[in-house]
Write a structure and sequence with these properties.
The protein has 20 helices and twelve strands. It has about 500 residues and is mainly alpha-helical. The longest helix is centred in the C-terminal third of the chain and has 24 residues.
Length: about 500
């Protein structure tokens, strides 16, 4: 059953929307979760107890290393979240009375799709996107390989696939779609990109060896042109994709980054990171191996550092990745230059969430330090906060964003209906919005568990709430608020390397 119908009008009063849940149906609803009673044992479990995690880098000694660490994402965003709680943001007004309604809306989505079996909610990850339409595509892929392919090579292959698929998973725009060559069905957005990347993987698009299509390696990525990527993703003048060139550049850069044998082996495959992780000195070898999330993080941050655009923020010549200055942060002369920067590392976090799935499921590996990861600072989670009325863009910024939208609408192929403010990824509005999203997702997790009456080991993890509630809820509110484009309440100019 859907939550909305097309006659429903968006409202800041979430209760007026969620009250319709029991009596309305619609095709606006996100794809229903695949029923899989094995999710609780097939995906990452909570972090093992009594595992000592390494401390973060000391910002007084190496501020760039600190800002690239997973620890810094929550630490630095917290400063802006604290300003939000005092309603002292530079670009948004905060209505604290909407916090309870926002949590109640998330709960309504979770109850609709999972009650009372909340333990079956999988953590947020790319795996679920491959299952769009209820088809277990990854299980089918695994079953298609001969039994002589052992668990480690199967895991390497899925790491290959998932890493490329996540890097392709930026906003594709409102007009792009993908028609599956296998089923003939058409998919859009993240699910469309998942199905497209899977079918390209099976066709050998990312492999440099035509006899071994089920892999991603440097040779395959280096020969992949923008034109070939467009063919694989079915991009055309009539089926345009935002940020196609950025995606192609990202994959080309990935091909070069994979030529690092320490992380990616002599065959230059993403999947070879499995061998690095299992043999790392910090990994606890036992009947159930325990890998530190900071170890996985270092592979992704350090091993893939060169793939990000050179125009990204740098500190002392060191590239920081998805990290941006923000006017709401401390700044010189009262603070050091690094203190003005907010790190997000959204795609790296999305990779962590997504890669832990196949590694845990196929290799029976546990990860210590999952709690270090944050809610993803992107437009579905952030859009939820705006569409529920918890935060509202200030008038001057809204005016500036609407003028930018009108200018952009004059460009052929760009959206020109359901007008919303438009900003670049590096705009101070977007940076503040993303930071406050991280903080409120942490707060919402506490309230959601309280409303669901879940405590102790039965509590939802942040990754489960993202999967079953906030990300899905943000998408559904966008669909009912802007049914023609289904775009978020703030449109972001994307080059395909952040969102």
């Amino acid at each position: 059953m859907g939550l909305f119908n097309r006659k429903t009008k968006a409202s800041a009063d979430v209760e007026s929307v969620t009250s319709k849940a029991s009596r309305t149906a619609s095709n606006l609803q996100s794809p229903p979760p695949a029923k899989n009673t094995n999710h609780s044992s097939s995906f990452p479990t909570p972090s093992p107890a009594n595992v000592a995690l390494p401390p973060p880098p000391d910002p007084a000694v190496d501020p760039a290393a600190y800002l690239r660490s997973i620890h810094a994402v929550r630490d630095r965003s917290r400063l802006i979240h604290q300003r939000a709680k005092r309603n002292q943001l530079h670009h948004f007004d905060v209505d604290p009375t909407k916090f309870g309604e926002t949590a109640a809306y998330i709960v309504s989505i979770i109850k609709r799709d999972f009650a009372p079996e909340y333990h079956t909610i999988p953590p947020h990850g790319r795996w679920q996107h491959f299952e769009v339409g209820g088809r277990q595509r990854i299980d089918q892929l695994l079953a298609s390989w001969p039994s002589k392919i052992d668990a480690q090579e199967r895991t390497r292959r899925l790491i290959d696939l998932f890493l490329v698929s996540v890097l392709l998973d930026a906003g594709a725009g409102t007009r792009w779609s993908y028609k599956s060559k296998e089923s003939g069905k058409t998919y859009r957005r993240s699910e469309g990109l998942a199905v497209a990347s899977l079918e390209m993987f099976k066709a050998g698009y990312f492999s440099g060896d035509p006899t071994e299509p089920y892999q991603v390696n440097a040779a395959g990525l280096n020969r992949l042109s923008v034109g070939q990527l467009a063919i694989g993703l079915q991009v055309s003048e009539w089926n345009p994709m935002a940020g196609l060139e950025g995606r192609a550049s990202l994959l080309e850069n990935l091909g070069e980054a994979l030529r690092n044998p320490e992380y990616f082996g002599s065959t230059a495959r993403p999947g070879n990171m499995l061998d690095y992780l299992l043999s790392h000195p910090s990994t606890q070898a036992s009947s159930v191996p325990v890998v530190m999330v900071p170890t996985l993080w270092s592979v992704l941050m350090d091993g893939l550092a060169s793939i990000w655009p050179a125009s990204r923020t740098q500190l002392g010549g060191a590239p920081l990745g998805d990290a941006w200055p923000c006017s709401s942060m401390p700044s010189p002369p009262r603070a050091q230059a690094w203190e003005n920067i907010v790190p997000f590392h959204k795609l790296t976090q999305w990779l962590c969430y997504s890669l832990m799935g196949p590694i845990s499921r196929l290799m029976n590996v546990q990860f210590a330090g999952v709690e270090l990861l944050t809610g993803l600072p992107e437009y579905r989670n952030g859009g939820l906060l705006i569409d529920t009325g918890l935060i509202t863009l200030k008038a001057a910024d809204a005016k500036r964003g609407l003028e930018a939208y009108r200018d952009n609408a004059m460009v052929k192929g760009q959206p020109c209906m359901e007008v919303v403010p438009l900003f670049g990824t590096d705009d101070d509005v977007v940076v503040e919005w993303r930071a406050v999203t991280i903080g409120y997702l942490d707060d919402l997790l506490i309230e959601v568990n309280r409303l669901l009456k879940l405590d102790g080991p039965n509590q939802l993890s942040l990754a489960q709430m993202l999967e079953a509630g906030s990300w899905k809820g943000g998408r559904e509110l966008a669909e009912v608020s802007r049914p023609n484009t289904k775009q978020p309440p703030i449109m972001i100019v994307s080059d395909g390397t952040v969102f």
